[in-house]
């Protein structure tokens, strides 16, 4: 009981600084505070057990996707393969200008390097606010054993984007511009994924899979003892699909065939992964895979995650496996669910390293 009370008090004290993990680093700490410390041996599996050259997430070139039907089919087949076997892939020649990718990363850095008083004005744990900055959404979740070494700001950019003045000046224009490109790329991805399922290209879009776009901009400060902490604990995503922009520092790992595989940063590439909701509606044909981010000394590491999900917005739609994919040989594996109900449980549970999907299996 004493330990638990200690942990809560220390989390609360950390939270009340409103300075996040960056505040600890700015204070020049040399040791990781105990609320961030992993149970011993957690990172014993840190390195992939096979050479990364023979075991890497697929890289798919979108250069020819609009050229002709044959070229598009080649891309669709690669997406199908990646979504079924890995749940992750990187895309190149995706149409988002390099300048837009660089500017959003710069905008994120500008925000986190702002004067603390400016950042404090955006600090909140109220998810109904249009723009939220804090450290660890699950800081007070009882099941999260340790706090992650990262700060985050979040904003829904669709279906109802915030008024520009609600966004910090440091990243305002960059967020607005970047989100437009994410909606455009998301539209293409959902068409290709629908085709990969053998369905009409508008199928997933017609189910409102890309109605909501939540942007999470992460800042992973350099960690004085990276073997004692995690940037992000293992989890799968509470989304239909996630598009991730990461910088060149690395640290993202995907769990594949019982080992952790590095997602090696590729200049100009975007990382795409299947979320829990897409695994449900495809009846396990596409897989939502656990992933994590290691802490590192080289930071700060910047990443921008765009989640296609309306999970925190009012949405009465009920989702279950797509009827066209079901048969006697392939009966439904999930009960119908309401995304709000799913997300409530997901957020209450926090990133505790367990899958929330299993609760909805038939």
Automatic annotation (TrEMBL):
<dbReference type="InterPro" id="IPR027443">
    <property type="entry name" value="IPNS-like_sf"/>
</dbReference>
<dbReference type="Pfam" id="PF03171">
    <property type="entry name" value="2OG-FeII_Oxy"/>
</dbReference>
<keyword id="KW-0408">Iron</keyword>
<feature type="domain" description="Fe2OG dioxygenase">
    <location>
        <begin position="211"/>
        <end position="311"/>
    </location>
</feature>
<protein>
    <recommendedName>
        <fullName>Fe2OG dioxygenase domain-containing protein</fullName>
    </recommendedName>
</protein>
<dbReference type="Pfam" id="PF14226">
    <property type="entry name" value="DIOX_N"/>
</dbReference>
<dbReference type="InterPro" id="IPR005123">
    <property type="entry name" value="Oxoglu/Fe-dep_dioxygenase_dom"/>
</dbReference>
<dbReference type="GO" id="GO:0046872">
    <property type="term" value="F:metal ion binding"/>
</dbReference>
<dbReference type="GO" id="GO:0051213">
    <property type="term" value="F:dioxygenase activity"/>
</dbReference>
<comment type="similarity">
    <text>Belongs to the iron/ascorbate-dependent oxidoreductase family.</text>
</comment>
<keyword id="KW-0560">Oxidoreductase</keyword>
<keyword id="KW-0479">Metal-binding</keyword>
<dbReference type="InterPro" id="IPR026992">
    <property type="entry name" value="DIOX_N"/>
</dbReference>
<dbReference type="InterPro" id="IPR044861">
    <property type="entry name" value="IPNS-like_FE2OG_OXY"/>
</dbReference>
